[in-house]
Structures are given as structure tokens and as C-alpha cells.
Design brief:
481 residues, mainly alpha, three-stranded antiparallel β-sheet, 17 helices
């Protein structure tokens, strides 16, 4: 039976306008303003024929030189990662102190905490996700004395978490103090008042579950978040994109009304499509396809079941959308709550998102202790070793999430790329960092690889088909049978 979303039928004209690709002029204007604001003067976004947009060097770059840093438009920390890492909900810097980071993680694991039906935590008896990909190899530095964790007295853990106990040399790893959510949700935390205010004004005021939330229903919002945590956290990103657009629309309309005070009574309660399109512009720039059309077919799904699988994905998105609509619906932004728009937003993330990774200062701390001269190391480890053993391999887990980066999303693929997304030692927030793999000349396109470029020609082409294209880079043309 075909899914019917009444908003899709009622707002078909507005939906078509929102999904119409912006003109080359608007695209150019948007990225020129963005590059100027972020001072990424070494690059330019240009139309690139059959490949759409592309990023081009405006100057020469040397090997391993920073090409640009890109601030995310929207991003989230994976809910399963929130036990291990306490980070700013806006810029994703680690916050608190080394002691709080370690104590909090040990405390939550000791009481059997998992992810709650919102952003916080709850007791959970189920096994946690395997984090093997993030474990630090003992050959590379600090390691616990056992592969299994060793419990610590509850009082010792609580003293560490509450700041009553200081670890040796921890002052060499200062972190920003924790700033609470202005809405009082006790689920979002920040590194500064400016980050808290920016998140509140851009996204969080509609998605906060605290008492000052501006959502229609905190109860419905909790159900939406629970559904996302239990199915796919990409829905949380979609909610942030819609919240972002609604709040931009409201600010633009308020400004518009101030400029036309005499006619304000005639426009209150009406939707101005031109304002909605302008509010939507940062989202409109990203390449989009409907999620259920572009999502990769899992390896365990037979090709004969593909239609059923894609239908189930569509139904999953529809369920999520209904819960979100109950939470933050705005009549003047009604087209944003259509299944067509929701599917395209999620599809944009599916096609363009980059992993959000921020290295843990806890790992740095234990490696620092491990590298101390012997007398100092011996004394320090009398205190730190029990905590390292209690953490086990989890001591090195970094902040993990996913995010949409406007400039990075314009970068085209090559199986022999000249750049890569790579965090340097000093890159300790959620920004994407693009580094040159080799010399890049002025005027040359800057490319990255969407996949593992060490795969065979056939394997690479199969994976890239999920992105909707067949690679014709120099390497593929050379290797093509």
C-alpha cells in the first residue's frame, strides 16, 4: 500500500520549489560569502560541468599543508558515544576536566548505564556496542594491565567525578568548564556561554527537553528521540536541519515585519515562500536524493528483496517524521514536514556526511604519564594505574559522530585523491580539516576519496555506484578492463 503524506499533496508547489536546485549564481554567491566568513582564502567553489560543484585551489599547497577547515552546518555525537565522552554539544570540544571525564565514564559503566529515550543516560542491561575499531593498541603507548576492566571503589570514582580528587599532572591537560543548557535539559552541555547561546538560537530551543523548551510537546519530543536512538540517529540530524530552517525563517520574518510595520497585520500568520526559500538556502546547497532511493543495500539483503527493504526504510522515515511533527510543527513552515522533504534531507546526509571525530584528552593524559621519566612515572602510576586498569581499552575512545560540512560536501571523489580529511594534533573540535596529500597547484581541483582507494577497480566502482556515479578518474580510466 502506498504511503500517503497529506502535506506532500497539500504543499506540492512549495515542495517542488524547495527541491529545485539553486541557480549557479546563488550557489556561487553562497559559497563566496561562506569562504569569506571562514577566511578559507586558498580555495574557491566552482561549477564543474558534469560533476556539479567542485573545490579548486586558489594558491599552491605543499604536501601535508592545511587546505581549509570547515565548520559543520549540522552535526551530532552518536548517542552510544555519550557515555564515553563528555563534549560541547555545539563545537564538540571535550569539557570539564580529565578527572570528570574518567570519573563520569567509570561511574556510568559501573551502574549499568545505556542510552535513554532522550539524549541522556539510563540503566541498561544490554551489551554495549563493540568499540574495537577505537581501541588503542598497547604497542603504541599506555595500556591497561588486563583486557578486562577492574572495578574501583564507588567512593573513589565519585570523588574523581565530583572534582574532589586530583590526578597527578592533569593540570597539563586543561579543559573548558562545563556550561549547562539554557533550557535546563541536563542533556546538552557546552564549553562556553557563546556555544550554548549559538546552539539554542540555531537548533536546540526547539529540540530541548528541558522546562524552557520551545517545542510543542516535550513528551512527543522524547518519543521522537527515543525512536531515533532505537533505529537510526540520522533522524536527529534531520530534526536539527528542520529546526535550523524554522528558526532562520522566524528571524527573517521578524526582521521583515519590522521593516514593514504598517502592513504587519496583513502578513501575520501567512507563509512567505520567498522567506522560506531563503531560510532553506544553506540546506538547498547540498546534493540530495530521497533516502530510501540512495541508501546502500545491506550485504545481508538479497537483491530480490531490495524493493521491500527500500519500502521499509521509507516507512521508518515516515514514522520518525510523524513524531517530529508532533514535537515542533510550524504551520508557516509546513512543507518542511512533508515526507518528500524529510526523505531528501536524510538522503543529503547519507550522500555527503563526514565522520565527526575528536581525539580524547584522556588518551593523551595516560600516554603522557607513560612517557614520564621513571621516578616520576612510578609515583604517578601509583595513583593513575587503578583508573587505567578500570577503564581497560576504553581509555582511548574518542568523540564520534556524524556531520554535514558545506565546503567539504562540494569536494569531488578521486581514487587517486590529492587531499584527505585528517585531524592534526591541534585540531580538537568538530571542524573538518582538509590536508594536502601532495603538492597541489593553483587552479587544480582538490579531491578526496569517498571510499578505501586500496580496493580493486571493480570493488571501488561497486561502492561508488551507491553515490550515484561511475568514477572516471585517471586511475580508473587506466585500470578499466
Amino acid at each position: 500500500m502506498e504511503l500517503i503524506c497529506p502535506i506532500d499533496q497539500r504543499c506540492s508547489h512549495q515542495i517542488a520549489a524547495l527541491l529545485q536546485p539553486p541557480s549557479p549564481f546563488l550557489v556561487q554567491e553562497y559559497f563566496e560569502q561562506l569562504i569569506s566568513k571562514r577566511q578559507c582564502h586558498g580555495i574557491k567553489v566552482k561549477q564543474n560541468g558534469e560533476f556539479g560543484k567542485g573545490v579548486f585551489a586558489q594558491t599552491d599547497f605543499e604536501k601535508e599543508q592545511l587546505i581549509f577547515k570547515d565548520q559543520m552546518l549540522v552535526g551530532i555525537q552518536h548517542p552510544s558515544n555519550k557515555i564515553d565522552c563528555l563534549v560541547c554539544s555545539y563545537c564538540f570540544k571535550f569539557i570539564g576536566s580529565i578527572e570528570q571525564q574518567i570519573g563520569r565514564k567509570l561511574y556510568l559503566k559501573a551502574v549499568g548505564v545505556g542510552i535513554s529515550p532522550h539524549y541522556g543516560c539510563q540503566k541498561n542491561s544490554s551489551d554495549e556496542e563493540d568499540q574495537d575499531n577505537n581501541h588503542h593498541n598497547s604497542e603504541n603507548g599506555a595500556s591497561s594491565s588486563s583486557s578486562s576492566t577492574l572495578p574501583l571503589p564507588t567512593m573513589a570514582v565519585e570523588s574523581l567525578m565530583n572534582g574532589e580528587l586530583s590526578l597527578p599532572y592533569s593540570k597539563n591537560f586543561p579543559l573548558p568548564s562545563i556550561v549547562s543548557c539554557p533550557g535546563g535539559c541536563e542533556e546538552a552541555f557546552y564549553c562556553s556561554k557563546s556555544c550554548a547561546e549559538a546552539d539554542w538560537e540555531s537548533f536546540h530551543c526547539l529540540l530541548c527537553t528541558g522546562e524552557k523548551s520551545e517545542s510543542l510537546s516535550r513528551k512527543a519530543l522524547l518519543k521522537f528521540i527515543q525512536h531515533a536512538n532505537e533505529t537510526n540517529d540520522i533522524f536527529l540530524l534531520a530534526a536539527k536541519a528542520i529546526s535550523f530552517t524554522i528558526l532562520r525563517y522566524r528571524k527573517m520574518k521578524a526582521s521583515h515585519l519590522r521593516e514593514h510595520e504598517k502592513t504587519a497585520s496583513n502578513v501575520v500568520g501567512t507563509s512567505d515562500l520567498s522567506l522560506l526559500l531563503e531560510a532553506w538556502r544553506p540546506i538547498s546547497i547540498g546534493h540530495k536524493r530521497r533516502w530510501w532511493d540512495c541508501i546502500s543495500l545491506p550485504d545481508d539483503i538479497d537483491a530480490s528483496d531490495e524493493a521491500t527493504f527500500r519500502r521499509q526504510v521509507q516507512e521508518l522515515a515516515f514514522t520518525s517524521l510523524q513524531l517530529l511533527k508532533e514535537s515542533i510543527f510550524d504551520k508557516e513552515c509546513e512543507p518542511l514536514f512533508s515526507l518528500e522533504i524529510y526523505g531528501h534531507i536524510i538522503g543529503m546526509f547519507e550522500l555527503n556526511n563526514l565522520d565527526l571525530v575528536v581525539e580524547s584528552p584522556v588518551e593523551d593524559y595516560f600516554l603522557y604519564i607513560d612517557d614520564l621519566p621513571y621516578p616520576e612515572k612510578r609515583e604517578a602510576e601509583k595513583i593513575t594505574r587503578p583508573y587505567l586498569d578500570a577503564l581497560g581499552d576504553d581509555y582511548s575512545i574518542c568523540c564520534q559522530g556524524t556531520a554535514f560540512f558545506p565546503l567539504q560536501s562540494c569536494m569531488n571523489h578521486s581514487c587517486c585523491p590529492n587531499a584527505k580529511a585528517f585531524k592534526r594534533e591541534e585540531d580538537r573540535d568538530g571542524q573538518a580539516t582538509i590536508i594536502a596529500l601532495g603538492p597541489i597547484c593553483k587552479g587544480e581541483e582538490v579531491t578526496i576519496s569517498y571510499i578505501d582507494e586500496d580496493l580493486t577497480f571493480e570493488e571501488r566502482q561497486a561502492l561508488l555506484a551507491d553515490y550515484g556515479f561511475r568514477c572516471r578518474c585517471a586511475r580508473c580510466l587506466d585500470e578499466e578492463p
